[in-house]
Amino acid sequence: MLNCFTNMSTLSPQSLLQPDPVDEPFDPSSSSGSTPGRRASGRRDGGGKRVGIREIAQRAEVSTATVSMVLNQNPKITDATRRRVLRVINELDYRPNRQAQALSSKYTRMLGVLLPTLRHAVADPYFGEVLSGIIDRAAKRGHKVMLENVKPDFIKTRQHIELFERRYVDGVFCIGFGGRHAFMHELVEAEYPVIAVNSIFDDLTIDHVVCDYRGGAEQVMTCLKQLGHGRIGLIHGAPVVSTQRMIMDVFASQTACGQGADISDCMADGLFTERGGADAAEALLKRHPDLTAIFAANDKMALGAMHYVQHLGRRVPQDVSIVGFDDIPHTAFVTPALTTIHTPLYEVGVASADRLIERIRGKADPISDVLPTHLVLRESTSIAPAARPDA
Amino acid sequence: MLNCFTNMSTLSPQSLLQPDPVDEPFDPSSSSGSTPGRRASGRRDGGGKRVGIREIAQRAEVSTATVSMVLNQNPKITDATRRRVLRVINELDYRPNRQAQALSSKYTRMLGVLLPTLRHAVADPYFGEVLSGIIDRAAKRGHKVMLENVKPDFIKTRQHIELFERRYVDGVFCIGFGGRHAFMHELVEAEYPVIAVNSIFDDLTIDHVVCDYRGGAEQVMTCLKQLGHGRIGLIHGAPVVSTQRMIMDVFASQTACGQGADISDCMADGLFTERGGADAAEALLKRHPDLTAIFAANDKMALGAMHYVQHLGRRVPQDVSIVGFDDIPHTAFVTPALTTIHTPLYEVGVASADRLIERIRGKADPISDVLPTHLVLRESTSIAPAARPDA
DNA sequence: GGTCTTGATTAAATCGGTTAACCATCGGCC
DNA sequence: GGCCGATGGTTAACCGATTTAATCAAGACC
Hints:
Two copies of one chain form a homodimer.
Chain A: H1 3-6, H2 53-60, H3 64-71, H4 79-92, H5 98-104, E1 110-116, H6 125-140, E2 144-150, H7 152-156, H8 159-165, E3 171-175, H9 182-189, E4 194-197, E5 207-211, H10 213-226, E6 232-236, H11 242-253, E7 267-269, H12 274-287, E8 293-296, H13 299-311, E9 321-323, E10 340-342, H14 345-361, E11 368-371, E12 374-376
Helix pairs in contact in A: 2-3, 2-4, 6-14, 10-11, 12-13
The first copy, chain A, binds a DNA duplex through helix 3 and helix 5.
C-alpha cells in the first residue's frame, strides 16, 4: 500500500496539486482533537448554519440576484430595495464568503508579490519599505496581498504560472528581478497582469514604476565633484539588475575615477550586502589607495564599506567620503550618519499597487512611472583631503 | 441618483462588503481597454474553455469524484486508476482552481499575518526575519501567506473577524501585539486558530512560540557584571509587550543600576526605534552621568543609543558599553560592531507556521515553544572604566 | 386606451470543485 | 451456497456566491 504512493511519484504532477505531497497528505479522516461539524462553520446564528445570501434574500423578500447587486453596488437597484436589503444584512450580520465570490466572479481581488530569495528578502528594509506601500494601498482598494519567495524550486515547479492558472491571484508585483529571469518573460507573454517594481526591462514590454536612479546617481557625482573628489570608487550590485546598470552608466560616463585609470578598475561588485560592500571597499582601496570617496549603490553596501574603512584606521569622512543609495531608515543612526540618496520606496509601492489594479481592470496602455529621488546630506561626506586648506 | 449612494452610507455595512465603497464601485460595465471574454479565462486548450475536473474525468473515464480523490491523495484509489487519471491530468496540463477547492472544502489553505503599524512594520528587520520563516515554511506545507496591517481602522471595521468569517484564511499569526490589544481576545474567544508569535499573554490561553528573552537578558546582565559594570541603564520598548516586560523583570531583579538608586530611574522607554533609543540614552545619562553600560532591549534602540553616546564625545566601548537585543543582520556592520543577543527569529517563524497548521488541523492541546537565545560578543562592550588597570 | 420603452427584479444556470451516501464486485469463511 | 466485510468507485447533492436572459411593472407617447 505504501509503495503505491512512492512509485507513483514520478507520474504525480508534483507541486501542481499539493506542493509537498508526502509532507501533506491532508487525510480528512485523521485529524484528532475537537473537530467541529462538517465544515469549519464559524459559529453563527445560535447553532444554526452560517447565514448565506439566500437567507438574506428570503428575509428581505427579494431574490439572491438583488442581494448580490446590492453587495456590488450595482446602480440598477432602487434606493428603497437597497435600504431594505442592507437592513437585513446588518441585522443578521451577514458577510459574503470571499471564496464563493471569487469563484463566480472574474476577480479574486488577491495580489501576489514575488520576491527574490536574497538570504531573507523580506527582512531587507529595502523590500520592506516597498512592501509596506503595496499592502497599504492594496488594502485601501479592497485587495489582499500574498507573498511568494521565488526560489529556484519555485520556478522549476512553475509556481509562477500556477499562481494565475489556479486563480490564486489577479496579478503580481515583481520586485528585484532582472531581464535574466526567464519566468518574467513567461508571465508577460501569457499576458497576465504583471508589474515590475523598481526595475526596468529593455527587452520586455512590461509596466513598471521606478525611482529616478539615473538622476540620483548624477546628484551624487555632482556633489562629490563639487567637494573636490577626483578619484571615486563605485560599489555596485549585480549588473543584471537594471537600477544598478543605470548607476554604473552614470558613473562611467563621468569618468570619475581619475584620469588615466581604467573605469572598470574603479568599480567593484558588492553583492548588495554589507559583507560584500566591505569586501568591495577592500578591493577598491587595494587597487587605488588614493581613493577619496566611495559611492555605494545601496545603503547596506555603503555601511559595509564604511565599516571596513574605519577598521582600516581611516576616518570617515575626513579621509574617505562615503555615499549610499536608498536611504533606508537606520542609515541616519550610524556614526557617522550616512549621506545617501533618498528613494521614495514606500511611494513606489503605492504607485505600483495603483498601476497593477488598473491593469487588472483592463487598462491596456503600458505604464511607466518614474518617481524623483533626492540627495540627503549627512555626516559621511566632506571636502576631499587634497582640496582642504590644511592638506 | 447620486445621493441615493451618499445618504445610504450610514446603512451600508461598510468594509464588510467593499472596503472602500466610493473608491471601488467596481462597475463591471465600465472597464475600458481590451476586456477578454466573460471570465478571465487564462488561455487554454487552443481557444476552448479552460480545462476543468469534468474534462479530466471524462477523458480518464472515471467520475469527477475519483479525480478529486486522486488530487487529494485519497488512499481509496487504486494504483492503476490513479496512474490513468494522472496521465490525463498531465496531458491536459490541468490545474485545479483553488477558489473552487477552498469553497467546497473545509480549508482555504491561506494563512494571515497580522502586523502592527509601526511606521512601516514590514520594513523592520525584526518582523522581516520572522516573516521569512513563516513564508518559507508555509510554502513548504502547501499554504499561502497573506499580510495585514493592523491599523486602528482595521479593528474598528472588524477586519480581524472578517478574515475568518468571510473565509479569507484558516488561521492567523499575530506578531508584536500585547494583552492590551482587545482584538486578540476576540479572536481567541471565537476559537479561531491563532498563534502569538514571539509574545506571551498571561491573561489569555493562546498558542505561542517565543525566544527565550529571560535567558537572553540574564546572559547580558551576567556578562556586563563580569566586565565590572556597576551602573547599568536599560532602554526598553513598550512594557505592554510581554518580551519587554521579561527583560525589565530580569533587569530589575538584578538591581543592576547600582546601590541606592531607584530602579525605575535607570530605565527609559526607547519606543523600539533608533530615535527613541537616542532620546532614552540622553535621559539616562542625564540622570546618571556615571553610567558605564547601556542595555537596550532591541538593536534599533541600541544603535540609536550608540549614536547619541558617540555624538556626546564619549567612546564606545571604552567609556560606555552598549548591548542590544535581536541580532538583526546589519548590527555586525556598524562601528563598533554591536554586542547583542541573537534571537532565532527566522526559526520562530518556521516553528509558528508548523504550530498554526497543526492547530488548524484540529490539534487541541495548547502549545508553548521557547527557543534558545545566545550572546554574540562583538565590539561595543568592554571592561568597565573603573575596573580597568589604567583607571 | 393601447403599445412602446425603460428600468427594476427574478429564475435559473454557472463557477469548479468536494464529499456523504450508496453500490457493485470479489475473496474469504462458515 | 450464501452471507459478510473490504475494496474501489460512482451518483448526486452541495459549497455560496455572480450573472444572463427573461419577466414584470410603470410611465411615456400617440
